[in-house]
């Protein structure tokens, strides 16, 4: 596809009923069989697990049916979800207790689109156990450690805990320090220090881990960037990413001195193969800010960067962000691969303030712009198949690299609830 060969359609061109009419897939073939097979004799330890399975578990089955996973892989993934993930979701309806999304529910779904092939299903979780938030596990560290240990026993291809052990030693906050921290800032409840992410792809599950930096910074008295530099220096013989990390942090300290890296993530694989991602959040919403972020203040340039800026400006216009400021902050990450001197940049655009009617049109226009015609034409049917609410979407994120465009769409994690997503306060 020529990079600027597609015209962006105005939002009032046609109706969403027209979008996808030509290539609407039959999305109900497989999931009914798989779902009924798994649910017929399912046994759960408590009523909350049964409700989670009938709500978000059913939604997971629909997500999996959209991917290229065959029926055998779908059975395997659903068994993993039922046995490992569902018990870690806690009470139903869920409690507001997690920083990982706007609803404060401790998990979220996304679909990752790369070209015309079927998307990859992804799942982030802030797991809950009986000791979560108690004096025994105020920061949910032991609960996450237990889940990581269980994942190691399952034996996913390439799974490795080396970086889990390293970064948790470097950043986890002792229990007594957490109590002092809460008292100092007047925070009524503890938030998890770390969460997990899972990508379901090619019959395997790739696990990622995220850590927030502020707790360790408070305990040590050091700036988050100093902690990141120190932690990376101690494992750089394997990750080979310190040059790019220093480039990113130098830019942040020059252009965004008041915006430290909020959290970072890595893959639970051999350190020599793991990516490192540094996440930043700001309330500054402007196209100039997006351009600055994506060029490291002018340090990044070349054909890929130029194409990235051009496409992101088109997406900015599709989302009408010059006249509409989202309620959620602007978020981005710098993804650093082993041996690379510069990062790839991923930008996150909140779409939770729009109706699904508007978002479906915008997402379809974006996919059409990229030349993903069938994905664009079928997106509305995909959305209707997944959720019956009017506010299913949360974020849309984009990375442009030499390999092409990578787009993820994030969704609320309850499938059967009303538009307030049945959230309870603790």
Automatic annotation (TrEMBL):
<protein>
    <submittedName>
        <fullName>DMATS type aromatic prenyltransferase</fullName>
    </submittedName>
</protein>
<feature type="binding site">
    <location>
        <position position="277"/>
    </location>
    <ligand>
        <name>dimethylallyl diphosphate</name>
    </ligand>
</feature>
<feature type="binding site">
    <location>
        <position position="410"/>
    </location>
    <ligand>
        <name>dimethylallyl diphosphate</name>
    </ligand>
</feature>
<dbReference type="GO" id="GO:0016765">
    <property type="term" value="F:transferase activity, transferring alkyl or aryl (other than methyl) groups"/>
</dbReference>
<dbReference type="GO" id="GO:0009820">
    <property type="term" value="P:alkaloid metabolic process"/>
</dbReference>
<feature type="binding site">
    <location>
        <position position="275"/>
    </location>
    <ligand>
        <name>dimethylallyl diphosphate</name>
    </ligand>
</feature>
<comment type="similarity">
    <text>Belongs to the tryptophan dimethylallyltransferase family.</text>
</comment>
<dbReference type="InterPro" id="IPR012148">
    <property type="entry name" value="ABBA_DMATS-like"/>
</dbReference>
<feature type="binding site">
    <location>
        <position position="279"/>
    </location>
    <ligand>
        <name>dimethylallyl diphosphate</name>
    </ligand>
</feature>
<dbReference type="InterPro" id="IPR017795">
    <property type="entry name" value="ABBA_NscD-like"/>
</dbReference>
<feature type="binding site">
    <location>
        <position position="108"/>
    </location>
    <ligand>
        <name>L-tryptophan</name>
    </ligand>
</feature>
<dbReference type="Pfam" id="PF11991">
    <property type="entry name" value="Trp_DMAT"/>
</dbReference>
<keyword id="KW-0808">Transferase</keyword>
<dbReference type="InterPro" id="IPR033964">
    <property type="entry name" value="ABBA"/>
</dbReference>
<feature type="binding site">
    <location>
        <position position="210"/>
    </location>
    <ligand>
        <name>dimethylallyl diphosphate</name>
    </ligand>
</feature>
<feature type="binding site">
    <location>
        <position position="122"/>
    </location>
    <ligand>
        <name>dimethylallyl diphosphate</name>
    </ligand>
</feature>
<feature type="binding site">
    <location>
        <position position="208"/>
    </location>
    <ligand>
        <name>dimethylallyl diphosphate</name>
    </ligand>
</feature>
<feature type="binding site">
    <location>
        <position position="348"/>
    </location>
    <ligand>
        <name>dimethylallyl diphosphate</name>
    </ligand>
</feature>
């Amino acid at each position: 596809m020529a990079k600027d060969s597609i015209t962006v359609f105005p939002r009032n061109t046609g109706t969403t009923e027209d979008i996808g009419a030509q290539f609407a897939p039959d999305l109900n073939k497989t999931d009914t069989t798989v779902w009924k097979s798994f649910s017929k004799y399912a046994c759960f330890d408590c009523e909350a697990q049964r409700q989670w399975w009938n709500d978000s578990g059913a939604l997971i089955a629909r997500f999996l049916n959209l991917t290229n996973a065959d029926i055998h892989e779908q059975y395997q993934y659903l068994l993993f979800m039922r046995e490992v993930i569902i018990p870690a979701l806690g009470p139903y309806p869920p409690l507001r207790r997690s920083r990982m999304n706007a609803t404060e529910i401790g998990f979220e779904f996304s679909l990752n689109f790369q070209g015309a092939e079927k998307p990859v299903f992804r799942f982030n979780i802030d797991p809950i156990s009986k000791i979560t938030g108690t004096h025994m596990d105020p920061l949910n560290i032991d609960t996450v450690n237990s889940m990581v240990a269980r994942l190691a026993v399952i034996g996913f291809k390439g799974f490795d805990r080396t970086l889990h052990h390293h970064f948790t030693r470097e950043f986890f906050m002792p229990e007594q320090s957490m109590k002092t921290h809460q008292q100092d800032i007047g925070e009524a409840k503890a938030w998890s220090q770390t969460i997990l992410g899972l990508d379901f792809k090619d019959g395997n599950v790739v696990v990622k881990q995220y850590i927030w930096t502020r707790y360790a910074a408070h305990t040590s008295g050091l700036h988050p960037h100093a902690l990141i530099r120190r932690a990376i220096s101690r494992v750089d013989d394997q990750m080979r990413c310190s040059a790019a990390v220093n480039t990113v942090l130098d830019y942040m300290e020059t252009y965004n001195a008041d915006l430290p890296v909020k959290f970072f993530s890595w893959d639970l694989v051999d350190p020599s193969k793991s990516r490192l991602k540094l996440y930043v959040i700001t309330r500054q919403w402007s196209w100039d800010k997006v351009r600055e972020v994506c060029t490291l203040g002018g340090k990044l340039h070349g054909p890929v960067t130029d194409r990235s800026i051009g496409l992101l400006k088109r997406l900015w216009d599709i989302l009408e962000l010059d006249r509409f400021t989202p309620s959620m902050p602007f978020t981005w990450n710098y993804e650093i691969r082993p041996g690379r001197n510069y990062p790839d940049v991923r930008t996150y655009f909140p779409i939770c303030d729009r109706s699904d009617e508007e978002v479906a049109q915008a997402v379809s226009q974006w996919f059409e712009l990229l030349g993903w015609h069938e994905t664009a034409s079928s997106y509305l049917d995909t959305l209707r198949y997944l959720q019956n609410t009017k506010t299913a979407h949360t974020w849309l994120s984009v990375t442009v690299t030499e390999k092409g465009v990578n787009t993820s769409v994030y969704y609320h994690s309850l499938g059967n609830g009303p538009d307030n997503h049945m959230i309870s306060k603790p």
